Predict the 3D structure of the following.
Amino acid sequence: MRTGAARLTGAALVGLVSIAAAGWSLASQIEEEGLTAGRRAWQIAPLPENLLPASSPLPPELPALSTSERRAIGRGLWREPLEPRLFNLLFADSVRIGRPDRETDRLAALLAQLGWRYTPAQQNLMIRALLDERFGDVLDRVDALLRRQRQPALAYTVLAALEGIPQIHGEVLDKLLAEPAWRSDYLSVIGPESAPALLEARVRTIDALLKTRSGMNREEIAPSLIALNASGRGRIAHGLWVRQAGEPADANLVHDPVFEQVAAQAGTAGPGIPFEWRLGQDLGYAAQTSSLGVSISWDRRGVPAFLSQTVPVRPGRDYVLTVQGRASDDSLQRLLSPLLLCATRAIRFEPAGEARQGQPRWRTGPLPASCDMGVLTLNGALDTGSGTVTIDLERVSLQFVS
């Protein structure tokens, strides 16, 4: 491998060879007379020395193909000259015994033409192309595996590594823009623990996909937004989400203030985007959608989080929260205790003047420097009496005042 590009290929190598060590050395018998003779021939070519971590499991050492085995392969190719299994076995053996590059290259070229529908061949060619830094060829092999629905976990891992390499990102994007059947599944393979290069590349990927006529649906964009937000890129994630979901109305920082969308999504198994309402439910309380908006049943014990949403805020600003609704036998202002969770701090809202009937208001002081994104949470207030109470929420508004 060329040392000049080692920094760029590191993520791809880790993603590929760790899986290679864990499960790529698949044993299989080739049904040719005298070839197997009770032994199992490795179909996957060995990797270069010192490529894997010392703790990685390695396949057992196997002898090279014998003369009789090679003759058996030759007889098989005489009968089936386009059989990729046999060329793949020759290729793996050529790499194993260190034959001259020109012979290995000739076998690789044959295999590249014949092995599109043979998974072990795709894996061997992918390793070879990766070690030679031919990322476009790796991408083609990944696409071939995914179109046949073979080795998806492996293919997604390698594809994610490629997406994080600037030189190949455009080609990965072209594959996604073509809307292959595997696109939605691939876009879900991301988390806050993903490599920073992938998280940063995913922002560029989403930006490009959102500019297309078809855009992105909620299921496609949600995993990336969740990962970006959890990795400390909440402001960036929110900007992408606004482009997909639409701007909030009348300067209200709360998305879906009258709970129309959360009602439409109730009961679906889709992922919860942090910039949308999350309704809480546990022992003693439950928040669920209703014809009025959100209805909360609570036994008045504890300080449960009824509902929450991540919102964009700014350090140094004051914010006013207004809630419209009613309670069965008490006031909303007495029953609710809203908080704004910023990083490790919980910012309390204090009552803002005399509450209008069914429409209490709360206000923060200037937010601290750590408050760039905040989780707005409507909690139950402590010591509100006894007995079950029903709270109906119709609208929530959060706006800055200074």
Remarks:
- The first helix runs from residue 6 to 24.
- The first strand starts at residue 27 and ends at 28.
- The chain has two domains: 3-239, 260-400.
- The two ends are 57 Å apart (CA to CA).
